Amino acid sequence: MQGYVTELDLTRLSLPSNALKFLKEHMPEQLVTVPTNHEDGAANGGTKEEVALDYEEFLNQFLE
Fold this sequence. Notes:
This protein is an alpha+beta fold. It has one domain. The protein has 3 helices and 2 strands. The protein has helices at residues 7-12, 17-26, 55-63; strands spanning 29-35, 47-53. A two-stranded antiparallel ribbon has the order 1-2. 6% of the residues are buried.
């Protein structure tokens, strides 16, 4: 299980825009390495780094 979500993951949830804005503002960012695919124009087996939102840390902040 990954401890992060991407902005694309959030948009697929069909949340109201104010909920998306809140999550993007309050979730800490982290740099993650993800596999690439043909849509990215990269060869199979490649990876790239992208910014993701750390939802585990976000939950920890609210549960303290």
